[in-house]
Amino acid sequence: MSDQSYNYQSLSTEELYQSLATRQTGLYNEEVSQRQSQYGKNLLASGKQESKLLKFLKNFTSLMAILLWVGGLVAILSGTFELGIAIWLVNVINGVFSFIQENRAQKATEALKNMLPSYARVVRDGIEQKILAEDLVPGDILLIEEGDKISADARIILSTDLQVNQSALTGESNPVRKNAKVVTDSDVTALEADNLVFAGTTVANGSARVAVTKIAMQTEFGKIADLTQTVADEKSPL
């Protein structure tokens, strides 16, 4: 079964199948159902869904914001009118800034979602079929070819002239050549491994049969999405 501790690039094909509890002919339908219950959907988390008005108002009702409102009122009542107004202005500016930051992070997450495909081709129980990409599970045998967006992190089993555009993850402008050879160098990271492909990247040339290792927020792409949401949750220190 899929495990975060596995160094998938260094496994032989048989070891890979064993670690993912899968096989060349793919998962059985019963196994797919069990893993969907265990791992959930292959979707990027959206974070809290709230109206823009509610999000905006929440920036002015946090503990720090309330303290600033009270501090401004105390300053005004004590006769330092200018200081009180200045404190309130700081509170307003801080709230507006936080709201804008949250909106930008939400838009970034939505943009990342749009980079993932809606459908995927897999082999299950020996039969090639088209499924919703959100229904992929670790251990699925995924088929990819030129022009395809890749919907999960996976280890290459077989490939033909495969090149993948990884710019969404690494910033590299040129496609990277990929193959099924075992990586023996322990210093090679996952993103550097020639036998791994990743969600959010695109097949620039060739084709391959790959075994899905990670889905959803566990993928390298999911980690980027998580960072954007973390930025949205961070509040200004003012």
Automatic annotation (TrEMBL):
Residues 7-80 form the Cation-transporting P-type ATPase N-terminal domain. GO terms for biological process: proton transmembrane transport. It is a multi-pass membrane protein. It is found in: Cell membrane. Keywords: ATP-binding, Cell membrane, Magnesium, Membrane, Nucleotide-binding, Phosphoprotein, Translocase, Transmembrane, Transmembrane helix. Pfam families: Cation_ATPase_N (PF00690), E1-E2_ATPase (PF00122). The chain crosses the membrane at residues 56-77. One of its GO terms (cellular component) is plasma membrane. GO terms for molecular function: ATP binding; ATP hydrolysis activity; ATPase-coupled monoatomic cation transmembrane transporter activity. Its main location: membrane. Belongs to the cation transport ATPase (P-type) (TC 3.A.3) family. Type IIA subfamily. This is Cation-transporting P-type ATPase N-terminal domain-containing protein. It comes from Streptococcus criceti HS-6.
